[in-house]
Amino acid sequence: MDISGALGILFKGWKYTDVMMSLEKLRKELSPEAFISCGCNVSSPAEICVSYSEAADFYRKRFIFHHCGVASTEVFKKSRTAEDIDFADRIYAYMEINDTEKLNGVLDRFMESMLTADNTPEKAKISCITMLMDVRSQMSRSAADKKPENMISDDFVNEISDMHSLSRMVEAIRTKLTDISDACFGKTTKSTMERVVQYIRANYNRELRLEMLAGIFGYNSAYLGKVFHQYTGDNFNNYLDEIRISEAKRLLAMDEYRVYEVAEMVGYSNINYFHNKFKKYVGMSPLSYKKQFGGGKDE
Predict the structure, then answer these.
(1) pLDDT the model gives residue 20
(2) What integer pLDDT is reported at residue 56 of this predicted model?
(3) Which H or E run contains 83?
(4) Chain centre distance of CA 246
(5) Which of 1, 2, 181, 190 can pair with 194 through a Cys bridge, CB separation 3.0 to 4.6 Å?
(6) 216 and 144 in one domain?
(7) Which of 130, 122, 126 is nearest to 61 (CA)?
(8) Partners of 70 in the beta sheet?
(9) In this structure, are 138 and 230 located in the same domain?
(10) Residues 270 and 290 in one domain
(11) For residue 121, which of 175, 69, 174, 167 has the smallest C-alpha distance?
(12) Residue 183 reports pLDDT greater than 60
């Protein structure tokens, strides 16, 4: 059947698995780039319209499901349950430690997160571009000297926006981010603990927890804490606080920011907590330090 310019095939008395095998064989004979959508199995002629509507919906969303070759409701059974993940944050974390395997894994999960019935090509493109811009923004904050605006250029964003399938879009992003990771954060002879310390120093102003670092670097958190203490001579929380307070002292002495702004800039969301930590390490309040060394007043 010719349906609105597309070839329609009606199977009668076939097992669904046999239908899928036949369609996959047909797709390979037509072209590796061919896309076939398949509706659900129905039990009566009156329900054929239901199966057709399902197949038509997949076809309209072929930008999203093109990599499946033959798209059917099976794609939802294979995809994972939606996860509440900040993909840009996780992706950039693995870029910074140049862990290509984990970077690829989280990009795969990002792709799978978009294989939902309510997604549209427009939404999928926006998700990809938003994630990419978030990664560029994070890189601007922690590695501005690498000129991320040149590495993830507007031209590249426009280029992937014109791609005809989500899978190609994600693969182009994968290649780009892997190349950036290799170029900017490529593995050296540094030990894992050196890389952990480097990561902390680059991200002290973000919410960091030992459990999160353990996940990024592939360690049990208790073991990482023990090895970290042996390497630095200090526990994780004290080490992080010392880095933050040291940077806070520098910012306060500049006399350009208010105390609450400095607190936020170095990673403390609670001003009272920052005040207590600062007084513990410096022996005076942030405001007193600012007045003494910055020469200014804080309203």
Answers:
(1) 84
(2) 87
(3) none
(4) 30
(5) 190
(6) no
(7) 122
(8) 36
(9) no
(10) yes
(11) 167
(12) yes
DSSP-derived secondary structure letter, 291: I
Q: Final residue of a domain: which of 78, 96, 122?
A: 78
Shared-domain flag, residues 113 and 210: no
Report the predicted TM-score, pTM, of the whole model to 2 decimal places: 0.69
Distances from the Cα of 298 to the Cαs of 134, 205, 258, 271, 292, in angstroms? 33, 22, 6, 14, 12
With both helix axes pointing from N to C terminus, report the angle between 121-142 and 154-161 in degrees, rounded to the nearest 10: 160
Give pLDDT, residue 186: 77
Same domain? For 51 and 35 the reply is yes
pLDDT in tens, 104-124: 999 999 999 988 878 899 999
Residues 36 and 70: beta-carbon distance below 8 Å: yes
Number of domains present in the structure of the chain: 3
What are 116's strand-pairing partners?
none
The reported pLDDT for the residue numbered 245 is 97
Q: What is the pLDDT of residues 96-106, one digit of tens each?
A: 888 899 999 99
Looking at the structure, do residues 284 and 192 belong to the same domain, yes or no? yes
Residues in the chain: 299
Tell me the residue range of the domain where 40 lies. 2-78
Asked if residues 255 and 294 have their Cβ atoms less than 8 Å apart, the reply is: yes
216-256 pLDDT, tens digit per residue, is 888 899 999 999 999 999 999 999 999 999 999 999 999 88
CB 61 within 8 A of CB 121: yes
What's 235's domain CATH number? Answer: 1.10.10.60
Listed residues 133, 168, 185: the one ending a domain: 185
Chain position carrying tokens 């973000």: 206
Residue 268, pLDDT score: 96
Does the structure show a pLDDT above 80 at 52?
yes
Residue in the structure block whose two tokens are 């009606």? 10
Mean pLDDT in residue range 62-72: 87
Q: Where are the beta strands (DSSP E) in the chain?
A: 2-3, 6-7, 36-37, 70-71
Provide the pLDDT for residue 161: 93
Residues 174 and 255 in one domain: no
Are 280 and 203 members of one domain? yes
